[in-house]
Amino acid sequence: MSNLEHAPRTTECGGPEDVAAGPVSELLTGRDVVLGGPRAMKVTRTLPNRDVRMVGAWCFLDHYGPERTAMRVPPHPHTGLQTVSWLVEGEVLHRDCLGNEQLIRPGQLNLMTTGRAISHSEDSPGDARLHGAQLWVALPSAHRHTAPHFEHHPTLPSLSGPGFTATVLMGELGGVVSPARTYSPLTGAEVSLDGGAEVGIPLRPDFEYAVLALSGTARADGTELVPGPLLYLGTGRSELALAAEGPTRLLLLGGEPFEERIVMWWNFVGRDHEEIVRFRREWMTGDAFGTVPGTTAAPLPAPELPGVPLKPRGRHR
């Protein structure tokens, strides 16, 4: 999914100074963002957050629905990241400039690695209930100019025990490894809890983690979690205690702290202001990003850049 804001915020993030040095429980309120178009769709954006801008290499998280709506995202560009599409309800059709066309359904993973440059579109067929999450993973410098490619994984491995099942979207959890290609050590999993469940999910002390409620209500490390805010957990944990009175779905994100500083603006991830300026110019002039076959929608124009150079805004703990 694109960032369709008309005046997107610029964020400089990453680096070890933004990482909690041990376990914390910080409830981060997201902000409502209305995606553009005649039938605008509202999402709750919890990454990047004013206080925590990344969790491992995870740098962007939108949670949308459940609601009856139509997703219509015209062709738009990306650089320097992987887009991770995860559905709880509904269907979304992905098309990209490489010629890939793939319908994603709940429980399946669409993963697009942008490399140097890619463009794509997303549409939901008809007017139906949609519920899901769109995430971005920042690519480290060693891989951010890799050849762009797309993956679809209709089935994914899971970790399970009494009262829970954890579907591993990206990376590794408790020794269970996703088939999706990653470029830095990651965890991305949907954890489904039965009513009355009290479980411990294995974690890596060298990873930082966060958890988001997709549906239902849970207690995570003793903190009540409902759909909306993101609970940042910091580092230094070997287990996460979860409990739920009724059926609940959670999104667990984690990863090795991302050592590089990145600049995010609109749909681009770069390393400095000049690079973002170049990406925008190449998109607007039709260079480098190709065209998306199979769609009649006009490409999404880039917003105007801010009038001041980017400055670091990292949080020192």
UniProtKB/TrEMBL annotation:
The keyword Nuclease does not apply. It holds the Pfam family Pirin. Signal peptide: none annotated. Its cofactor is Fe cation. Fe cation binds at H76, H78, H120, E122. It comes from the Bacteria. GO terms for molecular function: metal ion binding. Residues 189-286 form the Pirin C-terminal domain. Keywords: Iron, Metal-binding. Residues 1-22, 290-317 are annotated as: Disordered. Binds 1 Fe cation per subunit. The keyword Iron applies. Coiled coil: none annotated. Belongs to the pirin family. This is Pirin. The lineage of its organism: Bacteria, Bacillati, Actinomycetota, Actinomycetes, Streptosporangiales.
